[in-house]
Amino acid sequence: MESTIIHPSVFFLDSMITLKGGIFKIGDAFGEGAADEYPIKNVKVGSFALSKTCISFDEYDYYCICTGKPFVGDSLNNRGKLPVVQLTWLDAVDYCNWLSEAHGLDAVYDICTINNEVSVKVSWTKNGFRLPTEAEWEFAARQEGKYARYANGLQLPKSSIMHAGVNKQGSVPVNSKCSDALGFYHLCGNVWEFCNDWYGVDSYANVDFDNPKGVVEGRKKVIRGGAWNEPLDACRISRRQAISLDEQNHFTGFRVARSILM
Predict the structure, then answer these.
(1) pLDDT, tens digit, for every residue of 191-246?
(2) Is 235 inside any structural domain?
(3) Domains of the chain: total
(4) What is the pLDDT of residues 72-118, one digit of tens each?
(5) By CB neighbour count within 10 A (0-12 exposed, 13-18 middle, 19+ buried), where does 261 fall?
């Protein structure tokens, strides 16, 4: 495979942004959302770190080389810095555990198979890599909880948001276009992003105030952010979507988070 592969210990030295956390309103504040974006609730997230970009094919390919896992994607060409896609939510959490081990950190996910079904338990007190919670993702996209429709911190979109109205050819490199004010790339648009939470239509009705982690159980996981093949409306910060544990497609990827433990 002809690709410039970067070892994770090099990439992640300066590729995580630490957010102090705080209280913000989760949900659609503009009256244009679907039913699952309501009711608007005040929630509090603790301090956490989130990667500036989604995980690229280069980074995921290195994981595959190290572990013997099969490469994902249609082709071994045109990969590089494009966001890795065609992987499942379970693939993403397995990558998080491997990345934790590569950095000498504690694995967050306990993954086991019971009666031919995969079970994943989360240890929130561990210091390793994981997927962001839905609340953490929205807090970051809102640039630490600000009132905004899009992840550029504004109510109107910019050309940096990769949606079907400006780009119908596929995703763009994870560090392309301009970053937002905090330094994140493509929190809205380009590819949908896996979150840790189970999806529930009425998740916000009974959301915990302190570090919400979604409904206790479900059949699908939350994805956020919209994608290159979606209309602009799908790229609103508050827009929610769901994906099955074993589903993979050309427009869903992920970025990684870490808890800041006191």
Answers:
(1) 999 999 999 999 999 899 999 999 999 999 999 999 999 999 999 999 999 999 99
(2) yes
(3) 1
(4) 987 666 789 999 999 999 999 999 999 999 889 999 999 998 888 88
(5) exposed
Please report which helix (H) or strand (E) contains residue 24, including its range.
strand 22-26
Asked whether residue 63 is assigned to any structural domain, the reply reads yes
Query: Rounded to whole angstroms, how far apart are CA atoms 174 and 55?
Result: 8
Residue 25 lies in a domain: yes
What pairs with residue 119 in β-bridges? 112
Instruction: List, for residues 10-50, the tens digit of each pLDDT value.
Output: 456 578 999 999 999 999 999 999 999 999 999 999 999 99
Task: Give the phi and the psi of residue 122 in degrees, each rounded to 5.
Answer: -110, 130
pLDDT at 48: 97
Give the CATH number, domain containing residue 113.
3.90.1580.10
Beta-strand ranges (E) seen in 129-246 are 129-130, 192-198, 220-224, 240-244
**Contacts (Cβ under 8 Å, ≥6 apart) of 128:** 96, 97, 99, 100, 101, 103, 105, 106, 107, 108, 258
Q: Is residue 1 part of a domain?
A: no
**Tokens standing for residue 170:** 């596929």
- C-alpha distances out from residue 85 to 80, 131, 156, 254, Å: 12, 15, 28, 8
Domain of 59, in residue numbers: 8-259
Look-up: residue for tokens 């595959």? 64
The region, left, alpha or beta by phi > 0 then psi within -120 to 50, assigned to residue 170 is: left
Q: Which two tokens stand for residue 164?
A: 């079907």
pLDDT of residue 230: 93
Model confidence, pTM: 0.93
